[in-house]
Amino acid sequence: MKINWFSVSVLLGVILSVTQMHIASADDTGRPTIAVIGTGDMGDSFGPRLGALGYPVVYGTRDPKSDKSQQLIRATGGAATATSPEQAAISANVIILAVPWPAMETVAQNLGSLKDKIVIDISMPSVQGDDGYHVPLLETSSAEMIQGWNPGARVVKAFATQGSFLIDDPHAVGGPATVPIAADDRGAKEFVARLAADMGLDPVDAGPLRMAREIEALQRLYMVPLLQRRQAAFEPYFRRSYYWACIWGDDWSKPVADAGNLADIPHTQGPVRPCPGP
Ligand SMILES: NC(=O)c1ccc[n+]([C@@H]2O[C@H](COP(=O)([O-])OP(=O)(O)OC[C@H]3O[C@@H](n4cnc5c(N)ncnc54)[C@H](OP(=O)(O)O)[C@@H]3O)[C@@H](O)[C@H]2O)c1
Fold first, then answer.
1. Which of 118, 139, 213, 264 is most deeply packed, by most CB within 10 A?
2. CATH number of 234's domain
3. Is residue 94 a part of any domain in this protein?
4. By the 8 A CB rule, do 171 and 162 touch?
């Protein structure tokens, strides 16, 4: 019998993805507990939004007993709790790192074992240069740094080019906003894509984790109108020509595979089109 190794590898990839998504699930609803580390502008948007979508939320904060933490727990509803960043990370399968880059080195290296956990990096490791525009603080990216500190983690760069107001309300700019997602772990990337879609945002596969560098460059571009205090800023919106449902094999000379398990993602830009054939 002739074995089609491409089909086999696609099938294995899909099985692996489904398995990994199962690993990320923590309760009967299939929604994993999400740890939101940091209760600032982004943390206090993510938590209530995820809570409203039915995700169990645990906040990781330096002061779980503060009025702000307690208020956030009430605003989040469900069984939301607040604890230390390390305890929050231990109790969740998915972790959103919503802390400023300067604090990240300490925070991201003190969360206990992150082995097999999905870790979402939203940070912007840039600083204003002498001319007022942002310059990178790293030669690589914050996402790759976090991966290096936590080799077993499934690090994903996402939600980095959205203002917190869009996490609160994805329709605030009158149309879809794109969430570019970079990760080496396909199952983790798919999970975050589904999460973004659940939140009313438009996920786009931005490639492997090293592409976080380009997302961080996009952040610096995103900041320009804000730094200039323009009345009109912008939110990224990519008009897609290929849909998320089409996945490239590892070998780009091979045809694309049609991943039926992802077919429900791109609602925001119309119905799913079939992938181009071989
Ligand atoms: N704001 C946005 O619209 C936006 C958009 C895209 C990406 N981002 C990125 O998201 C991350 C969080 O941004 P943010 O606007 O939420 O920041 P923020 O308002 O300054 O809040 C950051 C939170 O991080 C926690 N934290 C832990 N260690 C800290 C330390 N040493 N110093 C200061 N805070 C510390 C604090 O929460 P606890 O007090 O609970 O510990 C703090 O409230 C940043 O990396 C930022 O670049 C922000």
1. 118
2. 3.40.50.720
3. no
4. no
